Amino acid sequence: xxxxxxxxxxxxxxxxxxxxxxxxxxxxxxxxxxxxxxxxxxxxxxxxxxxxxxxxxxxxxxxxxxxxxxxxxxxxxxxxxxxxxxxxxxxxxxxxxxxxxxxxxxxxxxxxxxxxxxxxxxxxxxxxxxxxxxxxxxxxxxxxxxxxxxxxxxxxxxxxxxxxxxxxxxxxxxxxxxxxxxxxxxxxxxxxxxxxxxxxxxxxxxxxxxxxxxxxxxxxxxxxxxxxxxxxxxxxxxxxxxxxxxxxxxxxxxxxxxxxxxxxxxxxxxxxxxxxxxxxxxxxxxxxxxxxxxxxxxxxxxxxxxxxxxxxxxxxxxxxxxxxxxxxxxxxxxxxxxxxxxxxxxxx
Length: 348
Prior knowledge:
Blueprint: H1 3-33, H2 37-65, H3 72-81, H4 86-116, E1 132-135, E2 138-140, E3 156-160, E4 168-174, E5 181-188, E6 195-199, E7 205-208, E8 216-222, E9 237-245, E10 249-253, E11 263-264, E12 272-277, E13 284-291, E14 307-317, E15 329-341
Parallel strand pairs: 1-7
Antiparallel strand pairs: 2-15, 3-6, 4-5, 5-15, 6-14, 7-14, 8-12, 8-15, 9-10, 9-11, 9-14, 10-13
């Protein structure tokens, strides 16, 4: 290798080492100015790793590239192509150590995040924007108002539809102030996931059950009479239930994931009582695709429903004898008077 090529190589090496050093310094400076402890820790650790990489490669380079300059190309080729060469062995060792340190950092970051954000807290209902908790027999009476002194400003937290297949859902509170109800209109297409809505608790406060024997949640549902004259609307609407607890975990009303207990809604315009057993822990399964997926081993068959932040109503075509997803179609269902009871409730 002539002197010009050697100088070029040395310049390239200097650029690499200088870039690593500058990047480490910049990251260190940025890390110290970040207020978020977790991000600050990641940035500073990354800066130290870059600095270590630069120093290590500089030392290895000096160890193996010093010598007769005419023999440099051969030495480089030999060093880089031999599996058992000192450089390759040191680099493999460095990769292993770096990977182990990254894994340790990830574990520490996870522990720190869990410490900062207690995923076992029963106050994660605040993720829905709820103002706190309250004790009461009513989950939602659908008497919503935007008056200055009214707190029950909305009866629904969210609407969900499978956009991949063009599903749709909408909801509206209608009826008199004495007995209002929520009308849900939906349409779903095969093979999509069905539509659902999340009923928001009364006065924007999650409901505490622990201080009362409120073992059952019930509400009334019907399909309006006008659908009897419509050929394109479902006559046999079905409902399935999912609850959101104080830990922001979602729980399906069914023995296993996806095996929903389906409730039929009468197609003659009369109200049907739908009653949910909150005390039988075997009836609930953790839904991992939404909300807080963190769950302790002893919770898997023991849902914590002491605080309820939302009641999710899944709608579709009722499928008799089936425990699973509801069927497809276009339909309308109305619900009202969502409350708790110490005993099972049936239509009188």
